[in-house]
Amino acid sequence: MLHMMVHSVYSDRDVFLRELISNAADACEKLRYEAIATPSLLGDDPQPRISLTLDADQGRLTIEDNGIGMTAADMGETLGTIARSGTKAFMDRLAADAGKADSQLIGQFGVGFYSAFMVAREVEVFSRRAGADDAACWRSDGLGTYTIAPVDLDDAPQRGTRVVLHLLDDAKSYAERSTVERIVKAQSGHVPVPITLFEKADSEGALVADGAALWLKPRSEISEADYADFYRSVAGQYDSPAHTIHYRAEGRFEYSVLTFIPQTKPFDLFDPDRKGHIKLYVRRVFITDEAPVLPRYLRFVRGLVDSTDLPLNMSREMIQDSPVLAAIQKGVTGRVLNELQKLADSDSEAYLRIWENFGPVLKEGLYEDFERRDTLLGLARFKTTTSGDDWRSLKDYVADLRENQTAIYYATGSDLDRLSTSPQLEGFRARGIEVLLLPDQVDNFWTSIGVDFDGKPFKSVTQGGADLTLIPLSDGAPSSPQAEAGALDSFIAFAKEALAGSVSDVRVSERLTSSAVCLVASESGMDRQLEKLLANAGQLPQASLPVLEVNPGHLLIQKLATTDDANAMKADLAHLLLDQARIADGEQPSDVRAFAERLDRLMRRAVD
């Protein structure tokens, strides 16, 4: 299992060094946090550091830190079990005091350490936990077994962990200075712990990373490559950032912000917990990896905030309730949304790439964040019945309103192609009315809470009367001959009786121009797509009965209107019209067997 995991999780061998350095940096961060309550853990060695020692003659590479260290028991629990992360266990233990698990570091999945076996035939880990009086060594060849044994204190670091890699024959280049220096500068130059490279254990070291926090440096001193490298580490992603937001806020509260919008969707974007991933530092001391700095609809944003005003001696629970953090939340959220708006105005193609990835998540804010709803509506982009493959803003939509049009019309569903061919759209197309096509589940919710834009309410094309009579037909739109009024009234009365218990009403439609029938919700009823969604989730005891609308200009309706009510096939045809409307809405007939029998009778009569 270990061999399979190592050779399938990682495709680039160089990544092992980044993973081990990240683990070392995490160990130093853990110590800095624990030393807030127990300063004696630092002893006479308060400055965190990471050292890399090369031994080309023996084919060895050593990574050492003076962080929190491990006991023998820690080694068994973390290094001895694949995907058991020591970092995660550490953060779980800290979170227990606050009553909630609210943090995760680089080592969330507990597999980074094992990437060492891509380049090593044997790995030794010597460690001494801060404040402990003993040390231990974990040793394995990566073939399925390991040993843990106590060692003399002289053979272990004074505090922290030393990882010794005995390199494979085809990996000896990782004991060469040029190779290691290149990898560190390319992948780990951003870590907030100094990294020193030694060509021999007794040689003078060379500083290859200064440990200066990237987020505290001026933007002018940071390259795009530096930002990309830092993003990959902080976000756990392997792409490059689509947009970088880096600034320092000054005034009543001072804090530094470095956040990124990914190019690709994070794997946990739709995690039910909808947790954010913003790290919180206080004066460069790590506090938590899931600080509630941004609202949940911005959870795709990755990065960190470093405050100079939050006190270090507060519990995590108290920090989250702090008015300082509340001010940071408001400031950072406003800045992120403002940056998105500036990008939308200056580089629409770049913004649309972000919207295509994260639009469904941003739209959650339309439902949850009343204060910023107008801003989010301005950021929203939609596919419509007139836009083709292009995206449209609400500002564009309102600018193109038809004569006498007083609402923003929309259609919700689960499939964009099916939405675009819905029969309920026919009357709107005939009048040149643009309709928003909303295929995301969240669209069913934010459109149902009385949202408006520029004074124009949102109105579903499948709910209530269409009210289209005041909007003129487009030039060239055909007008269908209407069925004779008395005969049509008679058929509608017949259909109401025949379909009683299946529909709440049968009426003439303003929506239809080419289809015979469609289903809509009543004026006071819930939008049909929202109702189906809630019913499927068990949130409604049963769905309400729909309204069946008929097209008086359709040849089939005209024929039925003049058919004798005593005709045995008329009731079958009324039921088949209802099932046809259900199928057009992406549903099944309510009684599949009865549908098949009616269709069979109709086909036999047609061939007689």
UniProtKB/TrEMBL annotation:
One annotated GO molecular function: ATP hydrolysis activity
Binding residues annotated for ATP, in chain numbering: E19, N23, D65, M70, S85, G86, Q108, F109, G110, V111, G112, F113, T161, R316
Keyword ATP-binding on entry: yes
Localisation: Cytoplasm
Annotated ranges, domain Histidine kinase/HSP90-like ATPase: 12-171
Pfam family, one: HATPase_c_3
Key words of the record: ATP-binding, Chaperone, Cytoplasm, Nucleotide-binding, Stress response
Region called B, residue ranges: 317-532
GO cellular component: a single term: cytoplasm
SMART domains the UniProt entry points to: HATPase_c (SM00387)
Region of interest: C: 533-608
Record region (A): 1-316
Family stated for the protein in its record: Belongs to the heat shock protein 90 family.
Biological role: Molecular chaperone. Has ATPase activity.
Annotated HAMAP family: HSP90
Subunit annotation: Homodimer.
Protein name as catalogued: Chaperone protein HtpG
